Amino acid sequence: MSEKSYISIRNGTIASVIAGVILLAVPALRGYAASFLGWIWVGVVWFWEALIASYSLPGWAWLGIFVLALVGLINIYLAVRGEAEKPEYKSYIEDFIHGAKWRWSWVGNTITNVWCYCPRCDATLVYDDSSCRSLYSDVNKTDFICENCGHSVVATITGGNKNYATGAIKREIDRRIRTGGYRKH
Ligand SMILES: [Zn+2]
User: Fold this and answer.
1) Residue 101 CA, ligand 1 centroid: distance in Å
2) Residue 100 vs residue 19, higher pLDDT
3) What are the structural domain ranges in the chain?
C-alpha cells in the first residue's frame, strides 16, 4: 500500500468516526442520516454493478439493497405524509358561540388567542366581569360589550370571570370538534 492511499484511508476513517459521534449526539439527525446513507449505498452498489457489467451479486446483497431501498422509501413517505396531514379541525378558527362571534388560533393542538367580536359590526368586544368581585351580586357572570353598538351587551357567560368565560368557550370549541358539530357551520 502506498503512503498516499494509506493517508486517504486514514482520513476517511477519522471523518467517519467524527460523523458517527455527531449522529449519536443528535438523535433527530439519525433517522434522516440513515435514509440518506441508505440511498447513497444503493447508488454506490448500482454504480459498481454498471462498472463491472455483471449481474452476479449474491442473494444477501440483493436482500440488503431491497431493505435499504424500502427504508428510504418509507422515510420519504412518512416525511411527505407528515407535511400533508394537517387535521381538518385546524381550519376551524371561528364560530358563533353564546351570541358572539369567537375567533382563535391553533398552536399544535391547543386553542390560543380566543376572543370574541360583535356579530353586527365585527368590533372587538370588551369584557365586564365586575359582578365576580362584587359583594352585592349573587350571580357570577362576564358580559361582553360592543362599544361600537352603543355599549350594548352582546353576550353574557355566567359562572365566572373573564378567564372562566374564555375557558368555557375553549371547552365548547373542543366539544363541537369532538361531536363533529363544527362542520355544520
Ligand atoms: Zn357592534
Assistant:
1) 11
2) 100
3) 3-81, 88-180
